Amino acid sequence: MRLITTTLLATAVTLCAGAAFAQGIDDPTREPYYSAFEGKRVAYIPVAMGFDLTEGWAAGLKEALEPLGMTIDIRDPNWSTDAGAQAITSLISEKPDVIVVHNPDVQSYARLLRRAEEAGIYVVQVNMRSSYSTDAFIGADYVGMGQRIGERLVEVCSPANGGSGKVAITQGVLTAAASVYQMQGIQNVLSQHDDIQIVSNQAADWDGTKAKNIAATVIQQHPDLCAITGFWDVMDVGTAAAIKESGKDVYLLTQGGGNQMACDGLANGTYSEVVVYHVPGQARDMATMIKHLIQQGQPAGTTKTTLFTPLDFVTKDNMTPASCWSLPGLN
C-alpha cells in the first residue's frame, strides 16, 4: 500500500511540474540584461563620415544597440584632427557612457582618451589605435597584416619567381596606426630578402589624387616596377588609374573593409588583390564589447581588451559572394 501511495504521489508531483513547464517559465536573466542598456549613450567619433568604413561601423552600431534602448551620437570631425579633439573634450564634460573613436594618428587623442576614462567613460577604439590603450580595441593587427603583405610581395615579385624585385609602397598618413604598425610588419619580412627593393615609400594622406600622382611618377622612373602596395582601397583607386594609364603590368595589392567596391574592383581589374578586414564583423565586435563593459560595470580603464579582426586576402580567383558587403546608398 505504501509503495502504491508513494508512486501516486511521485506521479502527481511529476504531472504538476510538467504542467508548470508546459505553461513556460521566465528567464531570470532577461530583465537585468535589457534594463542595463536602457537609456545608455554611445558617442562615436570617426575620422570622417561619408565612406565605407565609418558608415558601416555606424550602421552596425545602430542596428545592434538602438533596439536595446541605447542612443548613438555621431560627432563628425570631417578629417579635422582639431575638430575631433574638440569633440572628445566636449564629450568628457557631457559624460556619455561610451566613446567609440577612430584615431587619425597614434598620438593626437592619447591624453584625451586617458582623461575620458578617468572621467568614468568607457573608450572603445576601432581599427586605428592610439598610443594609449583604452578599455577595448577592435581592428586589424597591422603588424601581422604588414608581415603577410611582405610575404605576398616576395611571392609575386621575387626574381626567383619571375619578378623584377622592385616594389613601391603608398601609405596613408605617416603617423596613423595603419601606416606605422604596418610598415613595421612589412620591414620585418623584406629586411630578410635582399632581392626585393623598395623603390618608393611615400604617403598619400588617404587621398586618391595624391596616390595617382605618386604612382605615375614611380612607374615613369621604374618602368619595370613589379608591384605597388597601398594602404586603403578607396585611395588606391587613384593608384589603379595611374597603372592603367601607364599601360604597365603592375600588381596592385591594397586593403580595406570589404565593401562591394573592393570585389567590383577585383572583378574589373582595378585591383590585383585586396586584404579585407570585414567592417560588419568589426561593428558586431564593438557592439558586443560595449554590451560587455556596461553589464560588467567595472570602472572605466580597469581592463584593456584587444580583439584583432580576421583578415582575408581576396583575389578575383578566390572571391565569393560573401567576400564583400554592401550598405544601401553607399556604393
UniProtKB/TrEMBL annotation:
It comes from Neoaquamicrobium microcysteis. GO terms for cellular component: cell envelope. Residues 1-22 form the signal peptide. This is Sugar ABC transporter substrate-binding protein. PANTHER family: D-ALLOSE-BINDING PERIPLASMIC PROTEIN-RELATED. It is found in: Cell envelope. Its main location: other. One of its GO terms (molecular function) is carbohydrate binding. Keywords: Signal. Residues 43-297 form the Periplasmic binding protein domain. CDD domains: PBP1_ABC_sugar_binding-like. Belongs to the bacterial solute-binding protein 2 family. It comes from the Bacteria.
